[in-house]
Amino acid sequence: MSISLPREPDFDKAGGLVPAIAQDAANGQVLMMAWMNREAFQETLATGRAVYFSRSRNKLWRKGEESGHQQQVRQILIDCDADTVLLQVEQKGAACHEGYRTCFFREVGTDETKIVESRLVDPSDVYKK
Amino acid sequence: MSISLPREPDFDKAGGLVPAIAQDAANGQVLMMAWMNREAFQETLATGRAVYFSRSRNKLWRKGEESGHQQQVRQILIDCDADTVLLQVEQKGAACHEGYRTCFFREVGTDETKIVESRLVDPSDVYKK
């Protein structure tokens, strides 16, 4: 069985957008999941800065453009089906708009949901309304 | 700003399915990304075994039911928007149907795509046709 070596995700199969997971290259913490279209992926590859596609704003989202909390990309991996991207990044500041380093700051258990991370920054200091 | 403590992802907002990332609880390796509907999520929460929803087969996918490569779930996290799940798992064998421990075994660079992991098992030994 031979393994293909695609140059980019299969955006057509995925309907134009693929999930992109950002993981802290230094400590392995999963920081966030967002979406990429072909343009976002190619700009990420070319510049080494994480660029996503914002579904709510319907445009490219250069991570950190407002908050300053950019992601320097150390490695880009794609999965077996070529429909998911994993970025190994150096995260500046907090990945999450809620001010946590990771968006995954809540644990769901059978009895309760609880916050398991500490806030790094106050979101109101980062995002000016 | 108060943080909500939802008991499950917002499946309705997400159209019924949310991405679920599985990460090796021991070494932090991101193993795979799949999808969960409410039933898959609730069964995962109740049993402590990862259950996904297979979009191609249009049914619940109890990870490892064919391969034996199950995932024991140590922690379930949800992201800030409550539309992505992160599972911390103990992975038995290989997460990937291609026989690699992780589905993210290929690195995309500006010049080439290359395989950066080693196969654990031969898929033809695992999946009987």
Report on the structure:
The structure is a homodimer of 129-residue chains. The first copy, chain A, has 129 residues and is mainly beta. The first copy, chain A, has a domain at 12-95: Phosphoribosyl-AMP cyclohydrolase (Ubiquitin-like (UB roll)), CATH 3.10.20.810. Helices cover 11% and strands 33% of the residues of chain A. The first copy, chain A, has helices spanning 38-47, 123-126, and strands at 18-24, 30-36, 51-54, 59-62, 71-78, 85-91, 106-108, 113-115. Chain A has a four-stranded mixed β-sheet, covered by helices on one side. In chain A, strands 3-4 form a two-stranded antiparallel sheet. The longest helix of chain A has 10 residues, at 38-47. The mean pLDDT of chain A is 95. At the A-B interface, β1, β2, β5, β7 and β8 of A face β1, β2, β5, β7 and β8 of B. Chains A, B: In the C-terminal section; belongs to the PRA-PH family. Chains A, B: One of its GO terms (cellular component) is cytoplasm.
Question: Which key phrases capture this entry?
Answer:
globular, two-stranded antiparallel sheet, 129 residues, 4-stranded mixed beta sheet, 2 helices, Ubiquitin-like (UB roll), mainly beta, 11% helix, homodimer
Topology at a glance:
Two copies of one chain form a homodimer.
Chain A: E1 18-24, E2 30-36, H1 38-47, E3 51-54, E4 59-62, E5 71-78, E6 85-91, E7 106-108, E8 113-115, H2 123-126
Parallel strand pairs in A: 1-6
Antiparallel strand pairs in A: 1-2, 3-4, 5-6, 7-8
Function (chains A, B): Catalyzes the hydrolysis of the adenine ring of phosphoribosyl-AMP.
Binding site for Mg(2+) (chains A, B): 79, 81, 83
GO molecular function, one term (chains A, B): phosphoribosyl-ATP diphosphatase activity
